[in-house]
Amino acid sequence: MRTSLAERLGIDAPIFAFSHCRDVVVEASKAGAIGVLGCVGFTPEELEVQLDWIDARIGDKPYGIDVVMPEKDPWAEEQDLNRLHEKLKSMIPPETIAYAKKILADNGVPEMPEGAQHEGDYLIRSTAATARRHVEIALKHPKVRLVANALGAPPADVTRLIKDNGRVLAGLCGEVSQGKKHADAGVDIIIAQGTEGGGHTGEIGSMVLWPEVVEAVAPIPVLAAGGVGSGAQIAAALMLGAQGVWTGSLWLTTIESDLTEHQRELLLAARSRDTTRSKSLTGKPCRMLKNEWTKAWEAPDAPKTLPLPLQDIVAAEATGRARAYPDKARAVTINPVGQIVGRLNELERTRDVVYRLIEEYYAATERFKPLMSWE
Ligand SMILES: Cc1cc2nc3c(=O)[nH]c(=O)nc-3n(C[C@H](O)[C@H](O)[C@H](O)COP(=O)(O)O)c2cc1C
């Protein structure tokens, strides 16, 4: 299992564990995989605290961070994030906001409490200017060996900065053309995510996408993402030419994950068919559990979802209220997760998930051994 990429990063198993939860990151790296912290929910100041916390607990193990940074940012000229937020808000048709509010009211979710977090706070966290600050902060932390970008190659100067600092740069793709573009822009690892995956996802299934990308970007290493939840699937990914696997959904049902009790219950009970690709969260297709929120945006009278980042502001109405009233918002809480959710049926410790994957991987390769003989 020690692929050349695993050697390069100094990890025992090439299992990349993406999570927004720092506890999962620490536990995954300590168990011999590599934890990757999703930064999109943090202000730069919060991220600094998170990384210091991880550094203090992870020992000499490496870890990664993941940012959401477009190669070209149409709002780059606007440095004042509050002004940017006001500008973006003024571009949202009032009927779209009214529709989001109606979905929440129809499902019995109260208005935001007085003085609660403003929806602009979330937007400010997810702008390219913030992602740039995330990278700068991460580069001050030597145990951050890997910087991944959800949107592929970052702007050229950021790519250079990451590589000049000796960190490994990874970028996600959902189709071959994107993977080739990232490779040309100097990305060190291409993460090929099949449509099964949780979060933003394309249309092509993992079984087709992984080998296509492997062949198209060789010799650049590829990580297989989308639908990986067992060691046999890791064996399959390596057979298809990947150098490791990139996983997200798997860590949501760990004991360390910071979901609410209600979200955990929903995920543990969900079947693979219970997810949908919905534009209702960010304006880009994102795989999540079907519920009253996703259904309402599919209704014949629903307004069209808006492009990123405008739909983010619309959805902040739901994410904010779900945070404030987790119980009352059960039917409309947004739960990004992949189709592998059908296998996530019990809570496990993060480290036990890593050990299980490794054991299952070896069991799968044992099953395969007799098939390798021609006699
Ligand atoms: C709850 C959740 C949030 C995610 N957020 C991000 C993100 O902020 N950045 C990113 O690059 N990928 C994000 N992803 C996608 C993961 O990085 C990963 O590619 C995906 O989960 C792999 O497929 P799997 O869910 O089948 O393991 C997210 C996935 C989930 C489930």
From TrEMBL:
The keyword Oxidoreductase applies. Keywords: Flavoprotein, FMN, Monooxygenase, Oxidoreductase, Plasmid. GO terms for molecular function: nitronate monooxygenase activity. SUPFAM superfamilies: Inosine monophosphate dehydrogenase (IMPDH). Gene3D superfamilies: Aldolase class I. This is Nitronate monooxygenase family protein. The keyword Oxidoreductase applies. It comes from the Bacteria.
